[in-house]
Amino acid sequence: MTSQRAAVFHGGRDIRVETLPIPEPGPGEVLIRVGAAGICGSDVLAFRGLGPWQHSADKPGRDGHELAGEVAALGAGVTGLTVGQRVAVEPKHLINCGGCPPCTAGRVHLCRRRGYVGDTHVTSEGFAEYDLCPAGRAHPLPDHVSLAAGAILDCYACGVHTYNLVESPPGSTAVILGAGTMGLTMGQVARSNGLKVLLTGMTRESLDLAVKAGAADEVALVGVDDVAAAAAEFTQGRGADLVVDAVAVPEVTLQQSVELVTPGGHVCVLGVYPSPPRLEPHLAYVKEVSLHWSNSYAPPEYVTALDLLASRSVNADALITHRYPLDRIVEAFVAAEEKDRSLAMKVLIQP
Ligand SMILES: [Zn+2]
Ligand SMILES: [Zn+2]
Question: Where, by residue number, does the polypeptide cross the bilayer (predicted)?
Fold first, then answer.
């Protein structure tokens, strides 16, 4: 067999499943038979024609950076992996040069040449039957970790990185704005580190899931509950030690984060703002808020996320609500886009 089915992104909502050659693993590479690939919030932004990661009719592209599967073939010189082994794949857009100042400091996700191999920009192509990755980016999964859970390790690694940026001692209070996958994975990571979490969301269902999945101690329903009052009660009037903006609503959530945080506390933006957010700086000044932006993660944080999954400290399977075959990828994107209607949390493509 030399051909495969693969999704090609022609810009916005134009996604076509096409027949393409199965790539051959070069030296140091591994061919992965994709078992599951998650639709990321960034993928949905592009589907809606928003955000920085768009394809176009002139320049179609491939996507799918949250993936896990089985090793299908090994390139020359690859050791330590075997055909048939189950692996999670660290995304290729985080490949780095290894030599620039951020790379030397271990912050390889801030590499100026991030996602480049030579002059070619690379990205994982998990919305397909097969994908290639450098051997060092394929991480064997323990038997009890499902491929579906392995596929969303990327989301957990973002949570681990956010936690590392703002490291708060056990017992600290965290308010997480947003009950999507990033909010829930962040909540699980925070709670596994001993933080107490109040999580806000737009639907009762997503908040019920947050509690069931161990992502929150308490929840507040936006538009029904008084979030400020709930946060005040949760923090005994002090304000939250940490607020994570995992939803990035331009008119609302950055300002709200500053309002909810305790004086001297940390706000970390984990969502992706599609346009400039509203922020009245005076309150941030008065409180001397430390404002962080969380962008991806470094490889050790991916490994920490895998350890959290392997030790059952976080529950990834609980977050996976929808699964679609590759041929129905557009339907899957619509479910991921219209979460209030579909009640989707994480949507997976299983090619
Ligand atoms: Zn992602
Ligand atoms: Zn670099």
Answer: none
